[in-house]
Design a protein that fits this description.
single chain; 27% helix; DNA-binding; elongated
DNA sequence: GGAGTTGTTTAGGA
DNA sequence: TTCCTAAACAACTC
């Protein structure tokens, strides 16, 4: 479910608890979303700590608490953040509950591909500091993108766009949307773009990231019907530009949808 | 019952 | 060394 904009949507859902103390922590330590954590320290430090604020970067989120406590959250494929009344009944897939006086903040994840990473320290965790900057920032330049694509010259564009070490926050639907707008076939080799094609790709990345953040992160609305998003999973889905039936195949390890006319091989 | 799912990690091959 | 692919993780839906 969650890519860049969906992650931002879920992050904001916990804003209701900013400025308030955690009064109790309930968690299921057996679940694999907690792997690699010092849960004893988490249990000792979070109760009594106040939620100060949060940030999202790509698909990662970082929640900051008083008492030098930090909580990193990755939603995986099916994770989500919610807030519930103070004494709601915990569901089967609610693995972490931060109870506050007025409500409870909940992390749930049926498939358990998500992850929580607790950190205790005066400054943010190192894994967070090392994340690349946002694709919507000025640091995401055409030249840096070209250099990255050259390093992945033999991989299909679809696979390259999913590399979080550079294209932070892009997931399966955004990658398809970007390639469709740039009129590039998802199987094109990353090292084969001419300067004009690279520029179109860069512009499409900026457009899709900014548009998704504007539309989806506000209230989880779908993008408009002029986007590929609305058609890519329909059986016999049609290209919103020319009405041609979309093609589908596994590329870069993921199901990929494209228009054979707009995006020639 | 089988196939497929908006993600990441790892092992192994090229 | 570096890059690329497939499988594994796990639960649910169609």
């Amino acid at each position: 479910m969650p890519e860049l904009a969906e992650v931002e949507f879920f992050r904001r859902r916990w804003n209701v608890g900013v400025g308030q103390k955690i009064v109790a922590v309930k968690l299921n330590a057996e679940k694999r979303i907690f792997r690699g954590n010092d849960l004893a320290t988490l249990q000792r430090l979070l109760p009594g700590a106040k939620l100060i604020g949060s940030e999202a970067r790509g698909k990662q989120m970082l929640f900051r608490f008083s008492h030098d406590a930090w909580l990193g959250v990755h939603l995986g494929m099916t994770g989500e953040l919610r807030h519930e009344p103070r004494d709601f009944s915990i569901g089967k897939h609610d693995h972490l509950v931060l109870a506050q006086a007025r409500q409870s903040l909940v992390f749930s994840d049926p498939r358990l591909f998500g992850r929580v990473l607790f950190h205790h320290g005066a400054s943010e965790p190192e894994w967070w500091s090392r994340l690349p900057s946002a694709l919507t920032a000025d640091t995401f330049t055409l030249e840096r993108m070209k250099a990255f694509l050259q390093r992945r010259a033999r991989s299909p564009l679809k696979g390259a766009l999913l590399q979080q070490e550079f294209f932070i926050g892009i997931g399966n639907w955004m990658a398809d949307e970007i390639l469709w707008r740039a009129k590039l076939h998802p199987r094109r080799a990353s090292g084969s773009l001419d300067p004009a094609e690279a520029r179109e790709l860069w512009k499409a990345i900026r457009f899709v990231c900014a548009g998704a953040l504007r539309i989806v992160s506000k209230d989880y609305s779908d993008p408009p019907p002029s986007w590929l998003f609305r058609h890519r999973w329909e059986k016999g889905g049609l290209c919103p530009k020319d009405g041609r039936e979309l093609d589908r195949a596994t590329i870069g390890g993921r199901t990929t949808s494209w228009c054979p006319a707009c995006q020639p091989q």
